[in-house]
Specification:
Length: about 300
């Protein structure tokens, strides 16, 4: 949802036109003004994100498809001594090893609303036959008939960020291991056999649109949540609201007015220039404070 509650692209463009009457609409047409609005929205977002303002803060659960069953609810029987679930024609293969399994007492219902009581969650260990598969954990006894569903696997090697409108990463948090440090790639590559030598470590590094994860042999991933600053949503039509908080709209308008005059090869009004300077001064100071804080931490 866009941040402004008051201004659509049409109303913002009208505001800009009102403050730049000296520039005829023939000289700078509406599509050009729309482009100026987009570019200055991105510029303002960059300033605010650099100052660690919360306006564009967002979170996303990464790489986890737990809310979707990869099979429907199926009936099975359980043998504790071998940790084996029996289900003729389960359809699983060795490619499913590592996927999570949710097991319910009793049978019936649908996979969207199982009627059984949740008993346990585990992962597929082996798929020895077309009618059986084993899981990692014991369930403390033979429970007879029950039902199960298999969940999609969460990646433990990389996380795809391409679907996010990502500007800057704040932090990566795991529900089991808490904060996951994101280190430079060379720091990870210089640690030989990290998963064996540092059994309890969990790290990641960011390259392009992917976060690569490395963990020790004793570490199990939980739900990974990325905290980040997003890019603004640019309006696709005149009725779309501007993705800038209303308290910054005047700054956005003045920046756009300056660009409209520049596109027409005219000098911008001094009031607009001074307004932009005054309104961005506070944001610049926040940026400087952030940079000084980072330098202090790195000493």
């Amino acid at each position: 949802m866009s941040l402004s509650k008051l201004y659509t692209r049409a109303s913002l463009r009208s505001f800009i036109r009102e403050l730049s009457k000296e520039v005829s609409e023939d000289k700078v047409q509406d599509p050009a003004v729309n482009g100026i609005i987009d570019m200055n929205t991105l510029d303002l977002c960059e300033m605010l994100n650099g100052a660690t303002q919360p306006d564009y803060g967002a979170t996303s659960v990464l790489g986890d498809a737990s809310t979707h069953w990869s099979t429907s609810e199926r009936s099975c029987t359980w043998l504790e001594s071998t940790k084996t679930l029996s289900d003729a024609g389960h359809g699983l293969t060795n490619a499913d090893v590592g996927k999570r399994v949710i097991i319910f007492y009793a049978s019936g219902g649908t996979y969207d609303s199982p009627t059984g009581v949740l008993m346990a969650a585990s992962e597929i260990a082996t798929v020895p036959t077309t009618g059986t598969f084993t899981i990692v954990h014991s369930l403390d006894g033979n429970m007879g008939a029950s039902t199960y569903v298999v969940l999609s696997r969460q990646s433990t090697t990389s996380l795809d960020l391409s679907a996010l409108k990502l500007d800057k990463i704040i932090k990566l948090v795991d529900s089991v291991n808490r904060l996951i440090p994101l280190k430079p790639a060379f720091d990870i590559e210089n640690v030989i056999n990290l998963s064996h030598n540092v059994s309890s470590g969990a790290y990641g590094y960011h390259e392009g649109e992917t976060i690569y994860l490395v963990k020790g042999s004793s570490v199990t991933w939980g739900t990974l949540t990325l905290h980040y600053y997003r890019l603004p949503i640019l309006p696709a039509s005149d009725t779309d609201y501007i993705d800038v908080k209303d308290k910054y709209i005047r700054l956005l308008v003045d920046k756009c007015v300056i660009d409209v005059f520049a596109l027409a090869s005219l000098n911008a009004p001094s009031q607009a220039v001074q307004s932009v300077e005054n309104r961005t001064q506070g944001i610049r100071q926040l940026n400087q404070t952030k940079e000084e804080s980072l330098r202090t931490k790195q000493r």
